[in-house]
Amino acid sequence: MATIETEALVLRTYNFGEADKIVVVLTHAAGVVRGVANGCRKLKSRFGAALEPFTLIKLTWYEKENKELVSLRQAEIIKSHFDLLSQAETLTGLAYMGDLVIEFSPPHEANDNLFRMVKACLEAVDQAPADIQLVLRYFEIWLLKLQGYLPDIRRCGECHQEFSDTSGIFLNLDLVLRCRRCGQGQGSAVSRKVQIQLRATQKVAPQVFVQASHEVSETVRRDLGAFTQQLIGRVLEKQPRLRSTFQSSAVS
């Protein structure tokens, strides 16, 4: 029986039996992990409030071979975000983030970049809850990139020529961005302003992206949401269980 201790973000919990919970966490050491927290629903549980969704914790668990669920032993709060959970839009947006992390991440596969990105996005939401939609755009793009699904946003996927400032770019069903000549105008057009937003996410932290995006029109924000939604839907072969506001209005 191995004992593991690491930082973790609580993504989702389910009631299990009369006093327990199944907890899904994104951990620094082992990626997405599912575990049982025995007795955590009792009044004097040793876990206290540490297993509330989107709490950053120091987590210890036991792991047995051939067991899908680990046994959670201890959880200490590093940083809580309890105040965010009372805001409906914020809560829905965070739940959407958690769902996508679970959908895109193989269990027990450590990904340091993913952990740090999600943690940074959560901090950005904590600093500016009203801007959660902008944080979600950043999160979606980076999730797609880190998991290998974001197409090259600088070069045509067919002729490999760099996109010029005035070139038309098209996204087709194979999730490849092509120039106008190679794509022959087929697929979804990606505007120059959306291209600028996509490139901006690659250079800055989420807080900086959010601040700069205040100058971007709502139309461009919606178009960017439609772009990420198209990619996510194709990768998952279904629409996410939860969608963000910009995505829903852009693709409904």
Q: N- to C-terminal separation?
A: 49 Å
Largest sheet: 5 strands, mixed, barrel
Order of helices and strands: EEEEEHHHEEHEHHHH
- Shape by Cα distribution: elongated
Question: What proportion of the residues form beta strands (DSSP E)?
Answer: 15-25%
Helix tally equals: 8
Helix content: 25-40%
The chain-level structural class is: alpha+beta
Name the assembly state. single chain
The total beta strand count reads 8
What's the gyration radius in Å?
20 Å
Which strand order do you get reading across the main beta sheet? Answer: 1-2-3-5-4
Summarize the structure in words.
The protein is α+β, with helices and mostly antiparallel strands and 252 residues long. The chain has a domain at 132-252. The protein has helices at residues 88-104, 112-127, 132-146, 180-183, 192-201, 206-213, 218-236, 245-251, and strands at residues 2-16, 20-27, 31-37, 56-63, 70-79, 169-171, 177-179, 188-190. The protein has a five-stranded mixed barrel. The protein has a three-stranded antiparallel β-sheet with strand order 7-6-8. A hairpin with a 6-residue loop joins strand 4 (56-63) and strand 5 (70-79). Helix 2 packs antiparallel against helix 3 (132-146) and helix 3 runs parallel beside helix 7 (218-236). It is elongated, with a radius of gyration of 20 Å. The model is unreliable at 246-252 (pLDDT under 50).
